Amino acid sequence: MRFLGSEAGTAHQAWYRSFAKDYSSLYDAHRDETAAAFLDRLFRRTGRIHNVLDVACGTFSINLGLIERGYHVVGRDLSEAMIRVARRNVRSQVATADVARGDMRALDLPQRFDAILCLGTAFNYLVTPSDVNRALGTFHRHLRPGGLLVLDLANFDAWIDDNPINARSEGDYRAPDGTRIAVFAFNEQRRRKTVHIARFLTLVQRGNRIDIRFDEAPMRVWRKDEVARRLRLAGFRPVEWRGDLRARSEYVRRKSPRLVSVTVRT
Ligand SMILES: C[S@@+](CC[C@H](N)C(=O)[O-])C[C@H]1O[C@@H](n2cnc3c(N)ncnc32)[C@H](O)[C@@H]1O
After folding, report:
1. How close is the Cα of 58 to the center of ligand 1, in Å?
2. Fewest beta carbons less than 10 Å away: which of 53, 86, 141, 196?
């Protein structure tokens, strides 16, 4: 057994590095396909969406379903480890895609897109006003007028107001190669806080070797009204809110697992 030490800040980079290969096992098996189907339906409703940029693509697993449906997807992510897995995933689907390391605060691509995705609470990792401004500037510059921005945020309204529990299990997972992962989240609940420190104790068991690590990263608390106001200021008009990346997932403030904002670049 090894204790791998702790990490603070840097958008959980060491945490992602430690099990990028097993990252998909953290979610239920249908999550990627459900999310791709949801996005496809959204894009068809909006019309004229073909070129998509995912600014925090992780292992690119949701995007594989979009590529299968005929979209052209470019992926960027801060984590080199996640990008390595993303490239492997693209190759295993016998597809090609422009996937590379990149920071959503400072992207400069020679193309404008019909839609931008920032999924899996990645936008919450931007904590300072300057980081938020820089990322919104990136999104605005890289979207054509009328293009869609989809932000999939943690629903802090449900977490903080009604959930007094200090520690909860995120789950107990088994990867296809038998690796077992258990993640425990420690949440300090305070109604008035604007930054949440996401603390995880993670156990990764491969054979009889167990790695234990403790990580923490600050996440910005976005409430619906506040994010709507901030997006308007940055040149995005809210068009719909969802409670998750799945069909018929109406946003319910105190219940939904996520706060998904769909806005149009003005
Ligand atoms: C919870 S994962 C979500 C990955 C993917 N979007 C998904 O939903 O499966 C958050 C991702 O955001 C990435 N990330 C954090 N800060 C970033 C930044 N400034 N620019 C690009 N990616 C970032 C992390 O490296 C990580 O892969």
Report:
1. 5
2. 141
Considering the domain architecture, whether residues 48 and 113 belong to the same structural domain is answered as yes
**pLDDT tens for each residue of 47-82:** 899 999 999 999 999 999 999 999 999 999 999 999
How many structural domains does the chain have? 2
* Radius of gyration, alpha carbons of the chain: 18
**Interatomic CA distance for residues 222 and 220, integer angstroms:** 6
| Ligand 1 atom with minimal separation from the 79 CA | 25
- Give the Å distance between the CA of 175 and the centre of ligand 1: 20
Mean pLDDT, to the nearest integer, of 34-39? 97
Beta pairing, strands 99-101 & 51-54: unpaired
Would you state the structure tokens that stand for residue 147, as one six-digit string?
């293009």
Pocket of ligand 1 (CB under 6 A): 11, 16, 55-58, 62, 77-79, 82, 103-105, 119-122, 125
Pairing assessment for the beta strands 180-186 and 195-206 based on DSSP bridges: antiparallel
Domain that holds residue 207: 2-9+159-219
Cα 57 to ligand 1 centroid, rounded to whole Å: 6
Same domain, 107 and 229: yes
Q: What is the pLDDT of residues 108-149, one digit of tens each?
A: 999 999 999 999 999 999 999 999 999 999 999 999 999 999
CA atoms of 8 and 11, how far apart (whole Å): 8
Residue 45 confidence class, pLDDT cut points 50, 70, 90: very high
CB 178 within 8 A of CB 204: no
Cα(55) to centroid of ligand 1, in Å? Answer: 8
Q: What is the pLDDT of residue 123?
A: 98
Q: Which of 78, 83, 126, 152 should be mutated for ligand 1, with most atoms under 8 A from CB?
A: 78
Same domain, 86 and 129: yes
Q: Are residues 148 and 165 in the same domain?
A: no
